[in-house]
Automatic annotation (TrEMBL):
InterPro entries: 2oxoglutarate_DH_E1, DH_E1, THDP-binding. Keywords: Oxidoreductase, Thiamine pyrophosphate, Transit peptide. This is OGDHL protein. It comes from Callaeas wilsoni (North Island kokako). GO terms for cellular component: mitochondrion; oxoglutarate dehydrogenase complex.
Length: 281
């Protein structure tokens, strides 16, 4: 048995649990006799540049606390990645100590479907759009070398796509989800018949529809006259204005209304982290 942990670069540098597990790694009662840490280093934490996310040059520097070897490898070179992974596995098997593989790569699209990276990292993403994807780059090399034929390559791709499609189709067969299978200790009688927790009562915190409409209108307007606004952003603002008019809210507008109503009561709201440069969602 061999333990492998998969990390993101920002998480590896920023989550205290990484530092803690390194310090547990060689304790007599806790050791797993070495873990292979694979860091998928796309050089960006959601929307945060490395210089804003950590104080060390590499995200993997935290592994130095136990003198674990750290391999930085160009993820655009699959053979170099395989070589390094083999060395890491041999290290772990020989010395029973942790080892880190830092896959230096990039994230081709946004953090999720809603995320447009050109808003916050335009220079980086102009470069990324020019990059040939690693699969195509490697396939072209193997075909040029005569190691595989184009037909063999296309058959492999089709085979992999088929595996994914079949799994996706099978996933729809499960019609019923039993929440209790996911809970290790359901609490009988925690809720009353109408769904309210028995022991909790909350004072009403609602505000008038008039105030909500006001906040919605402010949240969908631009405060400065003759301000040139990004077309992607003006689309969002327009949609937000329409929602307010139609008495509909999405997650982002609901957040705006929550923040706005607290501000209207004279209470300071401080946002920190990734929401500051733009309201992410």
């Amino acid at each position: 048995v061999m333990s492998i942990l998969l990390h993101g670069d920002a998480a590896f540098a920023g989550q205290g649990v990484v530092y803690e597990t390194f310090h547990l790694s060689d304790l007599p009662s806790y050791t797993t006799n070495g873990t292979i840490h694979v860091v998928v280093n796309n050089q960006i934490g959601f929307t945060t540049d490395p210089r804003m996310a950590r104080s060390s040059p590499y995200p993997t520097d935290v592994a130095r606390v136990v003198n674990a070897p750290i391999f930085h490898v160009n993820a655009d070179d699959p053979e170099a990645v395989m070589y390094v992974c083999n060395v890491a596995a041999e290290w772990r098997n020989t010395f029973n100590k942790d080892v880190v593989v830092d896959l230096v790569c990039y994230r081709r699209r946004g953090h999720n479907e809603m995320d447009e990276p050109m808003f916050t990292q335009p220079l980086m993403y102009k470069q990324i759009h020019k990059q040939v994807p690693v699969l195509k780059k490697y396939a072209d090399k193997l075909i040029a070398d005569g190691t595989v034929t184009l037909q063999e390559f296309e058959e492999e791709i089709a085979k992999y796509d088929r595996i994914c499609e079949e799994a996706y189709t099978r996933s729809k067969d499960n019609k019923i989800l039993h929440i209790k299978h996911w809970l290790d200790s359901p609490w009988p009688g925690f809720f009353t018949v109408d769904g309210e927790p028995k022991s909790m009562s909350c004072p009403p915190t609602g505000i008038s529809e008039e105030l909500l409409t006001h906040i919605g209108n402010v949240a969908s307007s631009v405060p400065v006259k003759d301000f040139k606004i990004h077309s992607g952003l003006s689309r969002i603002l327009k949609a937000r204005s329409e929602m307010t008019k139609n008495r509909v809210v999405d997650w982002a507008l609901a957040e705006y209304m929550a923040f706005g109503s607290v501000l209207k009561e004279g209470i300071h709201v401080r946002l920190s982290g990734q929401d500051v440069e733009r309201g992410t969602f």
